[in-house]
Specification:
With 651 residues, this protein is of the alpha+beta class. The protein is built from 25 helices and eight strands. Strands 1, 2, 3, 4, 5, 6, 7 and 8 form an eight-stranded mixed beta sheet that branches. A hairpin with a 2-residue loop joins strand 2 and strand 3.
Amino acid sequence: MIKNYNVFFLLGFAFLLTSVPVLSQDRKVDSLKEIVETGVKDTAMVSTLNHLGMELLYQGEIDESMEYSKKARDLATELNYINGKALSLKQIGNANYYKGNYLEVLDYWTQSLENYEIIRDSIGISNILSNLGILYFSQGSNARAIDYLLRSLRIAEQSEHPLRISTAMLNIAMVYGDNPQDWDKALNYYEQALPYLKIINDPANSKAYYFGVGEIEYAKGNYQTALDYFEEGLNITENTIYYSQNLLLLGKTKFKLGELEESLSLLQESYSNADKDDNLLVKVKCLIELGIVYQNNDFEKAINVYREAEELAISQKLNYELAQIYEGISQSFVNSGDFKNGYRYQAKYLSQKDSIFNIETDDKMRGLQFDFDLLKKEDEIGLLEKEAQIQDLKDRRQRNVIFGSGIALVLIGLLALSLYRRYKFSKETNLIIETEKNRSESLLLNILPEETAKELKENGKVKAKSFESVSVIFTDFVGFTAYAKSLKPSELVNSVDYYFSKFDEIMEKHGIEKIKTIGDAYMAAGGIPDPDPEHVFNIVEAAFEIIDFINQQKKSDLREHHVFEIRIGINTGPIVAGIVGTKKFAYDIWGDTVNVASRMESSSLPGRINISESTYELIKDDYDCEYRGEIHVKNKGMMKMYFVNFKKDKS
């Protein structure tokens, strides 16, 4: 994956390439606040409030920016000024993006999009679609990102708007540039954007073009081509906050081409500019590149610059750069003949790589959690719409009652008809209410065990319970991340739903409680909420049925869904179970038993059932198990593991 520096630019609301003097910005903000204090309620005031919100966001005053943007939204709503409302909603989303509130960002940008669609503002629509695409990209949903960006591009092309066309193409190129397999697609979109860049002559978009193409060519090993692009970008970035970064790219490319003196000169100049601008990230990267240059001929200088980089990287929590630093220090010591220190820093490097792996895993979970939260939000919206329908029926009922009473004063004969209509309407309303109540009961039982749901309804809360012996099963589709990138979103979701629905049937058949799904992972437990002495045997049988189901799918000639390989892991031991949350309830389990079960799954092989020693001791007399030896488990050390092959015939 290429480290891309252009994400905030591509969102379409970050700082300009040329810096604005702070004093000038302060004066502009003060002037706008004076206008706002006049209290005039017209469309010009909406524009002023929006402008003030934007200027405050440029200065990093996020909360104050959001406050004025919300005032703009409220006034625009009061005046029915849709264009001003659309812009204010967009800017509230922008502020939430800086605060990391991504679901709120999605909500406000979607509302902004709806308002732009009402007034058929194609430029506004294209801009918001582009922003939504980059939001999904930042959350790891590249397929959705491309979908939104292509829609943005299509509308921009229909409007023949060069700036929006070039921005959409550069956004698409950036997303494709995230995956080495898609680099050719990325370069194709960069080249398609070039004619529009010549028309608009926009420094920001031009910078994105030269940096984006240059970084891909550098990653592919085409250093001379990369150098040409970085040199073209130098004139654009001169006297801007990106100048030191551009010098850094040139310096490390010169080194790859063997031009050491020019490389050192450029890197030192880059460091000097970054130090002046207090750009700590570029300073650290410059020091790393200087260390690479020095480590083969001046070991002392190499170690000194790496040490300086280490101090900065630790203070800024730059995990990826810290791993490069430790690797560089280790290599420098080895090149100087100091193998003891070389080994010591190699150990630090490996430890830091493990830390990075955990961060990347957290990022993947964050993307899955974002999708999960989004689905929950859509469900909530659906329930709110139902409630609105019921309320509307109640309002209509009330109006009819009043109307019927008035008619009764004029003509008693119509009272019977009115009462009949009232009875029919009440019956219809009660039927909808009863249907929704039953649906709510059903939804609650889908989320919580029956006993837990009953306790929650009676007491308003549920006490956590300890269980001494529970068997926990985890399943995971092999290579799911790769499939997620290659399959259409609808195809992927339909396939996963198809498999998980079958897993639900299998769990229900064997009396096992489904806990939750996270992305492609499926988790269930036997022996809760009601203790069951047979739970371990039930869960092993369920695991075999899942394997059989997967094998049937692979053999079928008429399959309609994608075929996945699956890994299964099982562990048995004590857990604590209860409800998390106060509004959006979820039944969950905790304890070391759950963690070990997850490790059993991740240590399993495709098509196999991997169990822990505790589970093996309970089933060894009834199932043929294959001892795998002691295998290292993260945060647990060495653990004995077994494959379950088949059930023994005791006849």
